[in-house]
Amino acid sequence: MPVEVILPKVDMDMATGKIAKWHVKEGDAVKKGALLFEIETDKASMEIDASSDGIIRNITAVEGAIVPVGQAVAMIYQDGETVSASIAAQPLPPVKPITPAPRPDAEQPAVIPAASASGRFPATPLARRLARESGIALESIAGSGPRGRIAAIDVRGALARPAVPQREGTDLISVDGMRRTIAQRLTLSKQTIPHFYLTVNCDLTRLSEIRERLNAHAPRDAQKLPVWKLSINDFIIKAMASALNQVSDANVIWADEGILKHHSCDVGVAVAVKGGLFTPVVRAAETKSLSQISKEMRDLAGRARARKLLPAEYQGGTTTISNLGMYGIEQFTAIINPPHATILAVGAGIERFIPIKGQPVLRTQMTCTLSCDHRAVDGAVGAQLLAAFRTFIEEPALMLA
Amino acid sequence: MAKPVAIMKGDPASNQRPFYAQFTPEQLKEALRRMCLIRRFEEGAEEAYMRGLIHGTMHLSIGQEASAVGATMALRKTDYITSTHRGHGHCIGKGADPKLMFAEFFGKEEGYCRGRGGSMHIADVESGNLGANGIVAGGIPIAVGAALAIKKQKRDDVALCFFGDGATNEGAFHEALNMASIWKLPVIFVCENNKYGMSVSTERSMAVANVADRASAYNMPGVIADGNRIEDVAEAVLTAIARAREGQGPTLVECKTYRTRGHSRSDRNRYRTKEEIEEWKLRDPIGHFETELVANGIATADEVAGIFAAADAEIAAGIEFARNGTDPTPDEVTRDVYTPGIQA
Amino acid sequence: MNAPIRELTYAQAIQEALATAMEADERIFLMGEDIGVYGGAFQVTGDLVHRFGEDRVMDTPISELGAAGIAVGAALAGSRPILEFQFSDFATLAMEQIVNQAAKMRFMLGGKVSVPLVMRFPSGSGTGAAAQHSQSLEAWLAHVPGLKVVQPSTPHDAKGLLLAAIDDPDPVMVFEHKLLYKMKGEVPEEAYRIPIGKAVVRREGRHVTIVATSIMVHRALEAAEVLAGEGIEAEVIDLRTLRPLDTATIIESVKKTTRLACVYEGVKTLGIGAEISALIAESEAFDYLDAPILRLGGVDSPIPYNPTLEKAAVPQTPGIIEQVRNLAKGRI
Predict the structure, then answer these.
(1) How many beta-carbon pairs below 8 A join chains A and C?
(2) Band of the pLDDT at B110, cuts 50, 70, 90?
(3) pLDDT tens profile C142-155
(4) Does C141 share its domain with C33?
(5) Domain B22-321 is of which CATH architecture?
(6) Which of A290, B192, B208, C246 is the 20 to 30 A CA-CA neighbour of A372?
(7) How many domains does chain C have?
(8) Does residue A356 sit within a domain?
(9) Residue at C169 is within a domain
């Protein structure tokens, strides 16, 4: 009688085993005690030996197969035994690899991540309040209730333990509302807005002259301080507004109802604050003088850093200007601030040699990259806008016309 | 078997009806005054309604003044009445002040119900008027209950219950009459049979020819009176009141009458003929009574004219009073649902 | 207070309340079907007719509508009637006078009158009386502004609530569960009143609030006892009054336990549990809720005759245990 080689139960609560490696093949002669195959278990591999001498035949489980405990995976034929015709004739049913049944765990609640595709987090009113009061975001908590609902116990659990296991060499920075909002909005922006990018180099020669002259001639106030001190950024804001005024098709936002063209050119300006950034908006910038813009920006930026801006002051507008030039950044692409149609990334003024009439001339250039939302602004319109902007930067006097 | 009704005795010497022997000339003129007041009141209410000054609807009793006044003229202030949705006449008969009634119709705080009840719920419980009722037959068991309380409190007051022909087909009518009878309660049931429920005539809706025929089912006297003659109504009711005060139990008095206006302001009168209406107008109860008073020398034509004029003036003043009344404010919408001081 | 405490049945407690009230106030009288020598269908009035006479313990014909109207009229004219309905189901026959007249008189008359009557209703299922004699209609009447509705759950409360109801100048509807009439409990001898509109916490607990009425209070307490053995502490509130509802007590409890179950015999759909759920969801307790609000009420069917089905039609203790356990464990 051929002897069955079964997959033995080797661990206490083992129901199946995975054949990790065969050490014999069909037709090999084995002695009792010889290594036949290895089982992979939760703990470590287990070597399975032959229980008698003979020839290995009818290997029915391949490497990697998962087999129920007690099932035959091969036969050992004694010397002289032949594979019985009936056995040989029958095609052995292939051992179906079995996906292991989930470990039954009646008392432990199934922990399902609560966030669904729409970004809603089912949570009890108490859980919401506890989360709100302790500044922990619901989306960072897994809910143990039905349908993944977050209950108070989940919030308390999340508060009791760190959000990620403490890794050596790291500090956990807790994330506040503003950072979360920025994270959410910009992720949404990058994921849903079809960005395209246009780049120009703007020659700062004339702008610098004019800026110097305007600042030198600033009247003095009662404290003998200059009434204005214009920055390059002030010019950039006005130039962008003027450009939007000229290329009004770019002064738009994308809305559910369609493309909304704004009447006035409201320009957002990114202001870095501790822990994030704000983009206060200069309204109708095309109608304001440089000194007005300058004064307004000073006030808005100051209050932004103090986190004292009103929502009305940082909502709205059709574009944002983001200037990293002060860090020496030559060029970068910015992510559109929804629902704006564009964002202008402004780099530092860099001295370069450029060819003018065949001769190398040293000029200071500022590289600006315009990101556009292709739904609202086509290539040509974006290009026109950027071209107009460049013109206003390179010939600031045009902004007086 | 009902006991025979005691017949009111008139004055054999003057061959007068008991009605004229029972009441003094002042009381008779007061009765005419009240009838005029009711008539003018109803007309005034109708006009105010047509001008859009009155919310909701109105159920006018023009043509039924004799039954209202005839039934109430013998009542004391401590006697009770319950009334129907067509109850303006009953209210005035029981002594209600027309200006406070108008104020109620105009929804003002000065109204009898402080503007909360309207035409169908006018009441003045302290004067024994337990109120008009918006539910047909709603007031019948209530009147019996008042009579029960009277008996328990060992008072010799009575409760007089007004209702129409339609109400006698409601279950409440039958239950109430049955209990009034078995307990021999001091209640007078006065049915103003004006031949129609809303649009369905008594011929089509009532199994018996007269409402009074139903009295025998409850072992009480059933009396038919000409509802357009005040003397008929008053005599029948006086007999019933005497019976009740003597502890002999209830009586059912049926006043055959007619309403010349529709059921309510929205009634198109499709269910009766113009001829019928005109015929009954000729039997106008006020016209009849003023003629009788003058003929019997109880009032002069001048006095009668004066009574009408006074009624006109009082109604006009009442409407004016009501128009200038105080409107309740929305924040008071739940006032008086419960008695204050008790957790509500 | 040295008044001896002794045990009476719920029915006896009611009788004692009626006798006490009638002795103290001549205006009070009883009306009902078979309440005289027969002693009342549930033997509540017992021998009152012998003590107070037929004038004050009046047998009426089978005329619920008429009797209810007479009660209204008598109350308006200075008497204080207490009307017994033989079964709460028969309230349907008297609805016109209860809802259109008794409830509304005071309001329609601008606050110039009140209607100081009491109506008593033997209510509920479990006696095999089947669909037309087993209903719990208290929510219907609690829906009507102008009425007050109480549901005493113990003999002690039956006496105290009834005395309060009799004192009340407004119409009070008293719903007595039939299965409670024979229940015994401590009842003080002296007259006392339990305020209408105040619930009582029968058992304190930290994990889940159970608001119950009438006989369900007892089933909820049984369930709470079993659950306590599993480490789940249920707080059981006996509502006592349906209108006006004591929301403050419920809110305080829910803020403590964060979980709420309502257990009542009336049909679950559009019943008192629906009102409590909505009130809590609208209240400050909303931000303390850590689970949906559970309602255990009667099923959407008339009460069946067959005893197994009859039991299955309303909440029973095992079901309450299971559902409240699920609620406490966050499984709902």
Answers:
(1) 30
(2) very high
(3) 999 999 999 999 99
(4) yes
(5) 3-Layer(aba) Sandwich (3.40)
(6) A290
(7) 2
(8) yes
(9) yes
Whether C87 and C180 share a structural domain: yes
Give the domain-ending residue among C186, C210, C244.
C186
Helical H runs in A24-169? 85-89, 125-134, 152-160
Instruction: Give yes or no for a contact between B328 and B52, defined as CB atoms under 8 angstroms apart.
Output: no
CATH number at residue A49: 2.40.50.100
pLDDT of residue A165: 64
- Is A374 catalytic? The answer is yes
User: What was the ipTM of the complex prediction?
Assistant: 0.89
Tell me the C-alpha to C-alpha distance, in Å, between residue A379 and each of A195, A196, A252, C20, C45: 11, 8, 14, 94, 94
Domain boundary assignment for chain B:
22-321
Q: Which of C76, C96, C106 sits opposite B146 (nearest CB)?
A: C76
pLDDT higher than threshold 90 for residue C221:
yes
Does the CB of A50 have a partner CB in chain C at under 8 Å? Answer: no
Do C179 and C204 lie in a common domain?
Answer: no
Q: Looking at chain B from residue 79 to 118, which residues have their Cβ under 8 Å from any Cβ of chain C?
A: 80, 82, 111-117
- List of chain C residues whose C-beta atoms are within 8 Å of the C-beta of residue B116: 107-111
Q: In the 8-state DSSP scheme, what is residue A327?
A: G
Q: Give residue for tokens 């419980």.
A: B125
Whether residues C290 and A152 touch (CB distance < 8 A) is answered with yes
Q: What is the pTM of this model?
A: 0.67
Q: Is C91 exposed, middle or buried (0-12, 13-18, 19+ CB in 10 A)?
A: buried
Which among B149, B338, A230, A398 is positioned nearest to C147, based on CA atoms? B338
The domain in which residue C45 lies consists of 7-186
Task: Note the pLDDT tens digit of each residue in B237-290.
Answer: 999 999 999 999 999 999 998 877 777 766 777 778 878 878 777 789 999 999
- Chain C touched by A112 (CB under 8 Å): no
Interface of C with B in 12-31 (CB under 8 A): 27, 29
Q: What is the pLDDT of residues B25-81, one digit of tens each?
A: 999 999 999 999 999 999 999 888 888 888 887 888 999 999 999 999 999 999 999
Token pair 């087993």 is found at C134
Residues A146, C287: C-beta atoms closer than 8 Å: no
